[in-house]
Amino acid sequence: MNTGQKNCSMNTLQQEEDGLATAEYGIVMLAAVAFAGLLTAVLTSDTVQGLLESVVQRALSH
């Protein structure tokens, strides 16, 4: 493989990796948003709010 072919191959590989990094970033962001939605749903439930409220009241009363 001569130098020109090697540079062309490296450029192609770099461009493919750039696309992969963008896709990975998108997947991570999607997972983070899904986790935030799940966390919001759990923390706004009556059961968890009551539990958190009792923990705070117990901590403040001591």
Short description:
Helix content is 92%, strand content 0%. The chain is mostly helical and 62 residues long. The longest helix is centred in the middle third of the chain and has 41 residues, at 3-43.
The SS-based structural class is mainly alpha
Number of domains: 1
Mean pLDDT, nearest integer? 83
Q: What is the CA-atom radius of gyration, in angstroms?
A: 25 Å
Indicate the low-confidence ranges by residue numbers. none
Q: Work out the helix count.
A: 2
Beta fraction of the residues? under 5%
Distance between the termini: 76 Å
Q: What is the helix/strand order?
A: HH
Q: Looking at the structure, what is the overall shape?
A: rod-shaped
Helix proportion of residues, in percent?
A: over 70%
Report the biggest beta sheet as strand number plus sense, adding barrel if it closes.
none
Got a strand count? 0
